Amino acid sequence: MKKTWKELFPDALLGESTQNTVPVQLNGETIFLLEESLSERERFLIQTLTTQPTKTTAPTHPWLAYLEGKGALPSETAYIQSVHLAVFPKQEGVFHEKDWLEFVENLTVGALAIFKNFRHHYTLVVNPGVSTALASTLFEVKSAIEDDFAVELQIFIGNRWATNTNTPLLYQAEKALFVEYLLHSHKRSCLEFSPVLLWGIANGLVDIAPIADELLLLLNVEEVKEVVEALWDARGNVSKASKKLFLHRNTLQYRIDRFAEQTGLNVKDMNDLTLCHLLLQKQSYKKNSHFYIA
User: Fold this and answer.
1) What crossing angle do the helices spanning 222-233 and 209-219 adopt, rounded to 10°?
2) Paired sense of beta strands 121-126 and 190-191, if any
3) Cβ neighbours, 10 Å, residue 239
4) Whole-angstrom Cα Rg for the chain
5) How many other C-beta atoms are found inside a 10 Å radius of the C-beta of residue 184?
6) How many whole angstroms separate alpha carbon 140 and alpha carbon 120?
7) Distance of CA 107 to CAs 104, 112, 126, 137, Å?
8) Residue 17: what pLDDT?
9) How far is residue 222 CA from its own chain's centroid?
């Protein structure tokens, strides 16, 4: 159930500023949060949600400019993948940002760039064609990074996207999804794309339309839909799904691999399969409903 701001911040004041409060605009009203009651994480999230890009100055980092829709693609690559990072120092004044940035960039195979969005919030851009097993690599070394740099680290592995006119919108939707997840859920610190997107769909707290529309473009191929639904009915069992489709198991595996290459989604993984099935079902419901507007 979606919580109200009063439930999340019971000490907040509506329209009444006092000393040591932080103003936040919400639905046309200003609420004031007591600074002493906010954690470092909550301060970061409030700053991220309320900070607006400077209109007169373009972002200085070329990848940030591209992903904010204010610049050209910095280097030719067919696909990119973003890793969204929230870094919370355990002690003030001991975090060496420059060393941390260099370490993370050098650690990741296929890294194209790493840049800062807001305070504590960074993006690592990688070439997914070069970087294999990105999630498992970062998740395995997370504890070591936290110990070495005295930080708490939150990692969200974005999806692999083709570089086209929609890429900046997809990046921005992922970033907003990451911030909302951190604000409303503290269950996990290593996050993969499909589980977080499913959480976003279920809670309706952020606009995921750019992501859903892009994935549906790839899902709306009859051959792909048949594979998704056959695997769903077979609970992810490739052998059972191949029999249902009257295909050789190797042929079905080839189609699964080809879809993964196009979308970054592996429909043998139940989270990815659930996401694809849900998107197709929601689309089918809209088209068959008399409330649907084409």
Assistant:
1) 100
2) unpaired
3) 10
4) 21
5) 16
6) 21
7) 5, 12, 11, 9
8) 57
9) 28
Alpha carbon distance 265, 280 (integer Å): 14
pLDDT at 114: 94
Cβ neighbours of residue 270 closer than 8 Å, sequence gap 6 or more: 236
Percentage of the chain surpassing pLDDT 70?
79
Q: What is the pTM of this model?
A: 0.77
HEC sequence for the chain: CCCCHHHHCCCCEECCCCCCEEEEEECCEEEEEEHHHCCHHHHHHHHHHHCCCCCCCCCCCHHHHHHCCCCCCCCCCCEEEEEEEEEEECCCCCCCHHHHHHHHHHHCCCEEEEEEEECCEEEEEECCCCCCCHHHHHHHHHHHHHHHHCEEEEEEEEEEEECCCCHHHHHHHHHHHHHHHHHHCCCCCEECHHHHHHHHHHHCCCCCHHHHHHHHHHHCCHHHHHHHHHHHHCCCCHHHHHHHHCCCHHHHHHHHHHHHHHHCCCCCCHHHHHHHHHHHHHHHHHHHCCCCCC
135 pLDDT higher than 70: yes
What pLDDT score does 120 carry?
A: 82
Q: What is the pLDDT of residues 228-249, one digit of tens each?
A: 999 999 999 999 999 999 999 9
Cβ-contact 254, 268 below 8 angstroms: no
Q: At 41, which amino acid appears? A: R
In one-letter notation, the amino acid at residue 184 is: H
Rounded distance between C-alpha atoms, residue 290 and residue 241, angstroms:
33
**Type of residue at 110:** G
From residue 147, how far is each of 24, 101, 141, 142 by CA, in Å? 33, 15, 10, 9
Residue 190 has what pLDDT? 85
**Beta strand 29-34 pairing with 13-14:** antiparallel
What tokens does 173 get? 């939707």
* Chain segment 75-116, per-residue pLDDT in tens: 999 999 999 999 988 877 778 889 999 999 888 888 999 999
